[in-house]
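ugh ok fine here u go
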Amino acid sequence: MFRQLKEDIALIKERDPAARGTFEILMTYPSLRAMRSYRKANWFYRHRMFTIARMISQHARNKTGIEIHPGATIGKGLFIDHGMGVVIGETAVIGDNCLLYQGVTLGGTGKDKGKRHPTLGDNVLVGSGAKVLGPFRVGNNVKIAANAVVLSAIPDDCTAVGVPARIVKRKGEKVSEKKVTQDIDQIHIPDPVSQELCRMHIEIERMQKRIEELEKNPE
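structure:
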């Protein structure tokens, strides 16, 4: 238990530049409290003591603003930055070394039984307010921009933006396990729609200038 706690604290120190020390992390970081409560709740859930598991998870939700269903499967190295409004569903699976910002939802799209929440691979970054909805897989080393709504599977090594989310980068430089902690820019991600509109605007201006020149010099 103490080894796991030390690992959690070390992870926060590594990933959050605002973390000033162990005591501050223990007393004030909701991510730490939420993950500790999740592990307890998950133990009861796996031993079929569902009500106790949900009581623990709901207590943690009230204290931290982070709701993790005790049935979710979470790998090592998950960091939830700030965390308010994060929801992780019952059949969600999260791989190793993932990063979730505030307001993220890993949810379902209906009331079907069985697998109904997403699976995140390793080294996945999900930006603030993003929603990942459905029983599909988000591949390894994927970045999902802030406020994106993901409704279908995303292959490995891709960047997705928009509503609904679309892939804007595929098969780029492979992200190492450490790079997800270094490259956490969730804002400056290219939007192909904006780029195309800008290109069209430049083309229209060029055509207007050409028309004006022809009107002045019809010959």
